[in-house]
Amino acid sequence: MNSVIINLFYLVAALLFVLGIKGLTRPKTAVSGNRMAALGMLVAIVITLLDRQVIHYEVVFAGLALGALIGALMAAKIRMTSMPQMVAILNGLGGGASLGVAAASYLSFMAAGNELSSTTLIIANCAVMLAVLIGTVTFSGSAVAFGKLQEILPGQAIGFSGMKFVNLGLLLASLAAVFLLITGQAGIGGFILLVTLSLILGVTLVMPIGGADMPVVIALLNSYSGIAAAAAGFIMGNTVLIISGALVGASGIILTRIMCVAMNRSLLNVLFGKMAVPDSNSIDADEVYKGKVTSSSPDEVSMMLEDAQRVVIVPGFGLAMAQAQHAVRELADTLVSRGVIVEFAIHPVAGRMPGHMNVLLAEAEIDYDAMKTMEQSNPNFSKTDVVIVIGANDVTNPMAREDKGSPIYGMPILNVDQAKSVVIVKRSLSPGFAGLPNPLFAMDNAVMLFGDGKQAIMDLTAALHEAA
Amino acid sequence: MEAFIILLSLFALAVFLGVELITKVPPTLHTPLMSGSNAISGITIVGAILAAGSGDQPGAIVQLLGFVAIVFATINVVGGFMVTHRMLKMFKRRA
């Protein structure tokens, strides 16, 4: 088919992607937006298949069929609590695909025996190496992120204080390999070395990052997978790859920024800072909690809830761990049926990826209008009778607001302590990811409801029904 | 070189468009945004099809790399759009 027509259809595909993302800006238009983006993809694939260059259809269709089967199975089977793992896999495969395309292009350039004379070829070569570097780092980095999220690998930070120098060394070595490859001083051996170095770099970059910082890593790898796709687009001068890659790259960068702001940390601090912070100014947990923590029972809490007008539920990663979203919905429904106003206050970094809690609550059929952001929730805590914190810890820690010496000082938190009463559903007084005790637990208006999140909430709902 | 500058301009403009669009996505939809944009980054499938299906390149390795890239990108595309649809339907239910 004529290349002009092909490129016009690529433009149509790119416009459909833009409209699709635009649809995602409102829950009501989001489903049709996603459909539009999928239609754009279909247009791009069909028009590519009609391209005159494509001859070996059996290989192409075998790949499409196998990929579609695996993709559909994954999408249908994955549990909503495991969505961060799913996104990690998708990020990694995106990076892997860009690596595959770049490597194939490199080999065919070699086979064609082109001399490095024309600028076009130099630019294409630069794009190949860039796609290889970013695609490979995305691939192995996502594999490590998946391992951590799936708890195959230990969730906490692994590494040593000199890790950043190792990473810097690996990056410099990779860039040197890129330079030698572009200038034609290195051949296929150099190419394999570049892939190997990038694979290791992806691992050593993500390894030292701990569980609660995963939202940043997932968002960043998302961005990388987009940039790798755009780089692959530069190899063959393909406009739709460049536009879509740029859109995805921008999306990932914005989410990364939002996550960093929500933790009051710079991206560099998230990526490289954690190892350098031992508990130098650690606060003794016993001192904070001793004799001040009140343990409560489902019956007592249900009595508090009976007099409440306004209840706010604060979910955290513990909610996902306990699979407690449906139990929470039951509790919320019970309260709403008695005329209580129930809202959900969601911190931007709650869970293991951006928007993780919202998806879980939506799965339990909780109305998205009841899900409030930190900015929407904070002014209303003082008007709230009971706050129920489920599996969240650091994002409610008042030290972030008050204790200038604390490592989390300055991080925006949910000011749950301003409510009349706070109920914290938690297994024990163990610290959150920041490793700090939470003075909230010892406050006069706070009680602890110890136990498994799901069971505790079910007991609470049962107690409410009994009392009625 | 000129072609490259045009492509670079396209890239830069698309980044800005992306930033403008995505800052408007509410936090509630951030997870579907990630899986959906992931599916879009599966557009490398176009490059993969051309790499695996082109006739003028003899190498079996090139074809194998193209094939693997097609499988990866298709998982990305099909899995990404389907799982996004599954999530978004849940948000729509009570709307």
Strand content of chain B: under 5%
Q: Overall mean pLDDT score of chain A?
A: 89
Poorly predicted runs of 5 or more residues of chain A: 275-280
Spatial shape of chain A:
elongated
Alpha carbon gyration radius of chain B: 18 Å
Shape, per Cα inertia axes of chain B: flat
Please write the string of helix (H) and strand (E) elements of chain B. Answer: HHHH
User: So how many helices of chain B?
Assistant: 4
Total helical segments of chain A? 18
C-alpha termini separation of chain B: 51 Å
Describe the biggest sheet of chain B?
none
Q: What is the total tally of β strands of chain B?
A: 0
Based on secondary structure, the structural category of chain A is alpha/beta
Number of domains of chain A: 2
Percent strand of chain A equals 5-15%
Low-confidence stretches of chain B: none
With strands numbered from the N-terminus, the spatial order across the biggest sheet of chain A is 3-2-1-4-5-6
The first-to-last residue Cα distance of chain A is 73 Å
Supply the helix-strand structural class of chain B.
mainly alpha
**Secondary-structure element sequence of chain A?**
HHHHHHHHHHHHEHHEHEHEHEEH
Q: State the assembly state of the protein chains.
A: heterodimer
